[in-house]
Amino acid sequence: MSKSRYTKLIRDEAKRLGFLSCGISKAEFLEEEAPRLEKWLNANMHGEMTYMENHFDKRLDPTKLVEGSKSVISLLLNYFPLEEQNPNSYKISKYAYGTDYHFVIKDKLKQLLHCIHEEIGEVNGRAFVDSAPVMDKAWAAKSGLGWMGKHSNLLTQQVGSFYFIAELIVDLELEYDLPVTDHCGTCTACIDACPTEAIVEPYVVDGSKCISYFTIELKSEIPTEFEDKFEDWMFGCDVCQDVCPWNRFSKPHSEPLFNPTPELLFFSKKDWEEITEDVFKKIFKKSPVKRTKFSGLKRNIDFVK
Length: 305
What we know:
two-stranded parallel sheet; alpha+beta; 12 helices; single chain
């Protein structure tokens, strides 16, 4: 079988599994990303996310994650919801409406890897879903799936940015895609709209000022200087994506596991303020919101109310 037939087989299977798109790039050191990452870490823009300091070399070199790797297969999975929350309530980032994406995507990646083994043979590879030192946005951009927007999220002309990114790193040589051009132009909608001014310059986000960081990653108390700036976000934040003109092309996903529970959509502020631990466990049984725990969500609600 030729490289082109292997590549087609992988793309076809990715489409069958429900992925939005599939891009492939050569597994090699990310030269352009290295100085950017180093500068960002040195400026302490990762806040208390100390894990970002670990495995610097692995983040930039896929061959250190999968020995003898030749290709990085990047995949996008849409999560844009059909229905959104009660607009007068406390808000949760759209990515967390349904079942935790780690489980959903990992299962699809295992199936894709199984197909590769069945159809191509002995291929060494690993699946990655935001759980290892892999620069997924950089690889997706390198693979031609979109460009890095000024809000530092991957953007695609046809569908915007409401999708997850995942990878398979394999020791199989494939046909590689080319990056696409940047289409942000002179637009500064995301920079202007960020409630905490976390986008400190185009393409650079100070993670330690981001609402998503405060409501998910930060374990200590939220700094009082950010009071009245959260715009009712109690878990994550979608502001920079919501205002992006490219997201007018977002279409609802077709993954049943990403559908929210009715309570999540219809709860009022009062309902959230009075939520018990039992109700929290019921609504967020398999949700990414479990990361913040009941105490963390209560802390966030108390901060924004």
